[in-house]
Amino acid sequence: MVMIAPALLGADPLALADAIADVERAEADLLHVDVMDGHFVRDINFGLRTVRAIRERTTLPVDVHLQVQQPERLLDELVDIAPDTVSVHVESTQHLSAVLRGLEGGGIRKGVVLNPATPLGVLDEVLEQVDQVVLMTSNPGTSDFLPHVLDKIGRLRALLVKRGIEHVRLVADGGVTAERAGRLVDAGADVLVAASAVFAPRHGGPPAAVGTLRAAR
Ligand SMILES: O=C(CO)[C@@H](O)[C@H](O)COP(=O)(O)O
Questions:
Q1: Residues lining ligand 1, CB < 6 A?
Q2: In the chain, what's the furthest Cα-to-Cα distance?
Q3: Sign of dihedral through CA atoms 169, 173, 175, 176?
Q4: Chain centroid, CA 202 distance in Å
Q5: CB–CB of 46/34 below 8 Å?
Q6: Domain boundaries, the chain
Q7: Beta-carbon neighbour count of residue 120 at 10 Å?
């Protein structure tokens, strides 16, 4: 069954504790937390002090998405915080292998993220080292869904099958809506990250919205 990962970025920034409680009540599978530095993407969001507080508050697995330049600067603190998963953009570092090694030791699941224009070939040397691959279905920092990534999701799913890799989760992030959920899962996504489709008031609040996303499959 598809896993739903509400992105806290979509919640009211003045009511994060309430949003976390809502997402728990919604029985979401993961709590997705975007760390943005104002350089890799324009926005600044969720410094590590806040990530630590979220990790201590929630019962859900915390899924950190680093959207920062030079993620190597954050590794020691992240290992200490020990979220469930930390995913790093391949475009954000010249030292991807070292960054993935730097996340070892805290029991953290390791992920890599690819922007829409980044080809799957960059995964060749790291696929065996990671626990999840996030394919951005919008450009980072935006929500404009890019349908051509559906084909990329399908090709990654086929590659995982071909290489006999069963433990790697395939995550779709960006512009995910109930209308698109079925196509994303049919293409091969295991996890759907959603900010506005969970937190925008028009969707009726996280419990209803998570249910809608799950049922859309
Ligand atoms: O990481 C990102 C953007 O960089 C995503 O998590 C988006 O923030 C998702 O927002 P929606 O498109 O789901 O509203």
A1: 7, 9-10, 34, 41, 65, 67, 138, 140-141, 143, 173-176, 193-197
A2: 46
A3: positive
A4: 23
A5: yes
A6: 3-216
A7: 15
Query: How many Å separate Cα 185 from the centre of its chain?
Result: 15
pLDDT digits (tens, 9 = 90+) for 160-206: 999 999 999 999 999 999 999 999 999 999 999 999 999 999 999 99
Tell me the HSE value of 184 on the side-chain side, using a 13 A CA sphere.
33
Fold designation for 3-216: TIM Barrel (3.20.20)
Q: Kind and range of the H or E element at 171?
A: strand 169-173
Give backbone dihedrals phi and psi of 113, rounded to 5 degrees, phi first: -120, 140
Using the structure block, give the residue that is written with the tokens 């930390």: 86
Which two three-digit tokens encode residue 60? Answer: 């859900």
Q: Give the global pTM.
A: 0.97
Beta bridge partners of 88: 66, 112
Give me ligand 1 centre to Cα 191, in Å: 14
C-alpha separations of 210 from 59, 150, 194 in Å: 17, 21, 9
